[in-house]
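Q: I have 735 residues here and want to know how they pack in 3D. Can you give me a structure?
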Amino acid sequence: MSLKAKAENIRGRGVLHEALIRHVRAYGEVDASEVAKTLKADGKDMSLAIDELKARGMISVRKGLFSGTKIRATKKLLSKCITDVSRADLLDLIEVKRSLTLGSAALRLNVTSVMIAEWTGLLEDEGLVKRTKNGFHSLDLNILRYRLNQRLAEKVAEGRVIQTQVDYMYDALCMARSLTIRQLASITNTDPGKIEDWAKKVKAFKLSYPTNITKEAIVTLAEKKVQPDKETGCTGSILDSYKITADKVTAKIRIISTKQDSKPIYEVSLPNVGHGTECLMDSLRDELSVRIRIDPADISDHKKMIELKGKFYREAKKILQSELELDEDDINILSGMMTHSMYGLGDIELLMHDDWLEEVCINTSHVPLTAFHKRFGWVETNLKLADERAIYNYAAQIGRKVERDITNMEPIMDAHLLSGDRVNATLFPISTFGNTITIRKFARQPWTITHFLEPGMETLSPEMAAFLWMCFQYELNVIVGGGTASGKTSMLNCLCALIQPTHRIITIEDTRELNLPKYLRWNWVPLTTRDANPEGRGEVSMLDLIVTSLRMRPDRIVLGEIRRRGEAEVLFEAMHTGHSVYGTIHADNVNNLKRRLLEPPIELPPAEVEALHLMIVVYRDRKRGFRKVFEIAEVRPGNEGMEFELNYLFRYNARTQEFLKINESIRILDELSLHTGMAREEIYEELKEKELVLEWLVDNKKKDLDEVGEIIDLYYKNKDELMEMISGKDKKDRK
């Protein structure tokens, strides 16, 4: 016999052994001839199999050599553990076969009849099967209800679950394909009239009325949507985790570092809402849009649009409460989700409420969203938009609220959200991979000088901060330079919060970023530019606003960013006419900032630039990700016919991570002495006082913009009282 034939023979005997064991275990005792017929085995093979199993002590044989032989299972065989078969497998088998005998079930599952009888008793106690004379059969609706509860338990194990009667209805139809209204009412424990209403209203369901009026209406799925496999989440080391809430919708955030990716993963875990509920909410959106009418004139009204969002939420809540029996928390979550999908940016709204994110980017629908995290830099999220059309719809929605258009003819749009966050959007093919949206988020609680001084951040030293405070207090002209996302606008904002409350402030920006404390708002006028309409009319440029601001009797003019020569010329002319001016500009260091002002495209005459007192440059430490004030320099006018010089005052050493004082100030101290009458010693004394105030703010964790504003306001109103409080002489608690 060949090796192949021997192998086939051995394999055949093994299969026969397993089949014989399965029969003996299932029935306890079997007739050898009957088993041979069932397994279609010849007498010789059966005799060999019986002899081998008997020799192994797994069976016992009685009566005759072959014909009429009875084979009985031994204790050794019955005690053999079957670990991969359970009562759940029996229920699966019953659900498919509808009715079974004990023996056939034992044979199919390869267990004993005694075990099947025990499991059947338990299933009968649970109301899932019913015993009959010859065996048992399934109770279909009860098993269906049991399956639905199993599915719900699995969802609950994964996180927060909102399961409604509509989900039970949808899942039941996924399993049973078609059910009557009465059956669905029984399964979901819902009024039949409500079931019929959902079957008509929800597009996922199809309601069929039979021609025979004695028969019940049948509900089926209009189209069974294949649900994508739920991502189990990233595996790796968790760098951070926290929760964010947007309009009562709470999501868990995990920042995960994986071995496969060099970039951190920003995982958003949303509330688990069943597909049936999602389909119902889709249907209810049409009803909600009918209830809430939007006046086109209200779209450009910031206050009315904010009120409209609240109206969306309240109406959505009313509709959901009339449709579903859920607790208050679940209704609030669903109302928030409906508001996000109809009025906001869908799931992206949650990212907009994460204060740790500075940037949220949609690069295309083919890849997940990305974001810039304040602690971890660029991260990849687990959120993804369905298609390019969805990106366009979001961009168009943002534009409509601020009277901006994005079309194939105008595929680039700069706009802002009602929250003040800046938005840039582009359409394919301008952006080769697909449509894009980039949202620059601004802190809901703006950065304050306390944030920049506190340990762990230390953007500048207390000595530098006190010096800059004095420059802003006494109306010296300052420009803050820095690269993209270096923090130059944040630095300008926190320094403007140190201005005395008796001055009129005009801010000019493309998009609102600057935010002043409460004590300054009474005489603050924020101005923003406006693009031309599709007919090319109605544009309000930065230059227009600068010229306008000069007619508003400003004490301080703050320009968001200097970009063009015309803007710079008017701004520096304002300096020469006695106005205190501040602004930002893109520059990597002080020398580069000087060149930006003197060379094209801005190209100001050196004599004009001499009106500027101070240059500050901030930068982002590329190794550690921290932002620092890199250089501070004063502008010293040159002698006749000579160009102005730079006197470097402070510089940050990235190697030693120290702030170094390079030189003493000359021009600024001279001008302070000239315009205030203070001697050098008095100036130094005031700088020390300011340092004490700033250190007290840090020690007492006064970080909120208005909290800092209250202390600065008190400094200007009653400095002696504040200094007494700081020195410890005033022991009373202050709010």
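Q: Anything worth noting?
A: The chain has four domains: 3-78, 87-138, 237-440, 461-686. The chain has a mean pLDDT of 84.
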